[in-house]
Write a structure and sequence with these properties.
heterodimer; A: alpha+beta; five-stranded antiparallel sheet; elongated; B: 399 residues; alpha/beta; Peroxisomal Thiolase, Chain A, domain 1; nine-stranded mixed sheet; 15 helices; 11 strands; globular; binds zinc ion
């Protein structure tokens, strides 16, 4: 393919997959403009993308309380009294309904890792800490981020408390934790 | 339940990218190898089980349909299995059930995976986009948005284990990396045959603390296929069958925070226990000649020593320190190179591991042959923090 045809091809494909034209050119220019023979592998730029509207169903209140009231809620089983956070509308042990209960938002790190190599969506945030946190008054642990000045000081057993982000949009990342 | 044997195997090269083949073409190559190995034509196959993990990797949802079409298996019955990293092990388990039940006599088990077509244009690399495709198999509501990676879920559990037992240390994990990369030097289908030192591993960049670059397996593309047969039909194939004597499987709480502890893999312990009970194994170290364990990460392999009862809980680090799991040791682990040395073509991985054991039990493993191998173990794990585990005990007829 000659250079001019290639640039038109790259532009059309870049629009189609929602990637900057320069990046498509960079990835494909060598292969597409060099004469390599009809049987060499032929690659195209592509993407798989689906827009959605997702209902939180029986867990809706958890996200609404964070968004609107800066409150962390768990659910308590009406039969065995276990408290779940992340919340669930039913107890997986007794199969009974649960009831909402407010939590203090303090807890303890059960384990953690520091991510240095991330997916393309998070690559600009590295390094960051992800930890399982057992919130006080609950029987399960929730995965969340812990933000600290010196990430090397992260430890199992660390006491943490919830922080609500200033701008919240109804996702679990509306909250994170910091050391107390 | 009927006795079931492996009567044909085929494994393509595991590579970082097979640009010249699509997923269904890769599967075709391994199917052809397995049919040739069994000495049969495709008409002899009664049913098919497909092990394919991630639909993004293939750029095709329900990719089994198009493998089935390409390998000319229409209109034979087929099902697809997808259990994360354990997909290959689960596919063998499902194939076993098809034959053991008496429903079919000959079952083709096809594992295949691409991955590196996923491509991050910003960095000009595959890995970040491969990891993104994987991240959609984490819990989308509470866990995926935190940016925890696949390595992260195993790093979290390894740290919990380290906190509880004082091991695996970073040095012990480095030794596993050196062992598996070195073992791969003898395996012609391996993706990462490298002569490394412990220092090389220790100095490699951090991926997810405490895992460094060389503590991780790489994503691979490849296919592995095996053919299962009932006992009465098994004698009609070219080579003597290798019997599946034990299968154990479990699926633990996938949200790790719901588990009673974070430092051991309950699914792995249950799967091993069940497989041993079925195969009549009482002392695994004494009765198993070689094992292919799911070393997606070095720390995971060390925890697997414990979960497969090669030692007591907390004793895993000692097995690598004492060389017990080395090629020349009492119980060699991952002589293929494992996922770290041979590669991790997810849906194909468990089948690649089983095929490696079959080669040794047939005395066909060439210069990496473990002498007089009669019994081998495969451990296939997947999902966040080893939610799924499948264990298989393979055995040859004792002469
Ligand atoms: Zn309950």
């Amino acid at each position: 393919m000659d250079k001019r045809t290639f640039l038109t091809w790259a532009d059309r494909n870049a629009r189609r997959i929602g990637v900057k034209k320069e990046l498509v050119i960079k990835a494909f220019e060598k292969d597409m403009t060099t004469q390599t023979g009809a049987d060499t592998p032929f690659e195209i730029p592509d993407t798989m993308h689906v827009n959605m509207r997702y209902s939180y169903g029986g867990q809706s209140r958890f996200f609404r309380e964070i968004l609107e009231n800066k409150r962390i809620m768990g659910t308590r089983c009406n039969q065995c009294d276990k408290v779940f956070c992340p919340p669930r509308a039913h107890c997986p042990h007794c199969y009974e309904k649960t009831a909402w209960t407010e939590l203090k938002g303090t807890g303890r790190v059960l384990s953690y890792t520091t991510v240095y190599f991330a997916t393309s969506s998070y690559i600009k945030q590295v390094p960051y800490i992800v930890a399982y946190i057992k919130l006080d008054g609950t029987d399960t642990a929730i995965l969340s981020n812990v933000e600290m000045k010196d990430i090397k000081r992260a430890r199992v057993g660390m006491q943490v408390k919830v922080v609500f982000r200033g701008q919240r949009d109804g996702r679990i990342t509306d909250i994170y934790f910091k050391e107390t | 339940m009927r006795k079931v044997g492996v009567v044909g195997i085929g494994t393509t090269q595991f590579r970082s990218r097979w640009i010249e083949k699509t997923y269904f073409e890769l599967a075709f190559d391994a199917v052809k190898m397995a049919l040739d190995d069994a000495g049969i034509a495709k008409d002899k196959i009664d049913c098919v089980v497909y092990g394919i993990y991630n639909d993004f990797f293939e750029r095709q949802f329900q990719p089994d349909l198009f493998v089935h079409d390409y390998i000319g298996m229409a209109p034979k019955p087929a099902i697809r299995v997808s259990t994360g990293g354990a997909t290959g092990g689960s596919a063998i388990s499902a194939g076993f059930a098809q034959v053991a039940s008496g429903l079919y006599d000959v079952c083709l088990v096809v594992g295949v995976e691409k991955s590196a077509d996923c491509f991050d244009y910003e960095t000009g690399k595959s890995s970040p986009e491969v990891l993104k495709a994987i991240s959609y198999t984490a819990d989308m509501t509470y866990e995926q948005p935190t940016g925890r990676t696949a390595a992260g879920s195993f790093a979290l559990t390894t740290i919990a284990h380290l906190e509880k037992y004082g091991n695996p240390t970073e040095m012990q994990m480095a030794k596993v990396s050196v062992k598996n990369h070195r073992n791969a030097l003898l395996n012609p289908v391996a993706q990462s045959p490298i002569a490394l030192t412990v220092d090389d591993v220790m100095r490699s960049p951090m991926i997810a603390y405490p895992f460094k670059r060389f503590d991780n397996c790489l994503y691979s593309e490849g296919s592995a296929v095996l053919i299962l047969s009932s006992e009465d039909v098994a004698k009609t194939f070219k080579k003597p069958p290798v019997w599946i004597r034990g299968i154990g499987a479990a699926l633990d709480w996938a949200v790790i925070g719901n588990r009673k502890d974070l430092y051991s893999f309950e699914s792995s312990r249950i799967a091993a226990k069940k497989a041993y009970a079925m195969a009549g194994i009482k002392d695994p170290v004494d009765e198993i000649d070689l094992a292919e364990l799911h070393d997606a990460f070095t720390g995971t392999e060390i925890i697997a020593y414990e979960d497969c009862f090669f030692c007591k809980e907390g004793g895993g680090g000692r097995l690598i320190d004492e060389g017990i799991v080395e090629r020349g040791g009492r119980l060699p682990v991952n002589v293929s190179g494992g996922l770290i040395g041979c590669g991790h073509a997810v849906g194909a991985t468990g089948i690649m591991q089983a095929n490696e054991i079959v080669l040794h039990l047939r005395d066909e493993a060439g210069n990496r042959q473990i002498k007089n191998a009669k019994t081998g173990l495969v451990q296939s794990i997947g999902g966040p923090g080893a939610a799924w585990t499948v264990c298989l005990v393979l055995e040859r007829d004792r002469i």
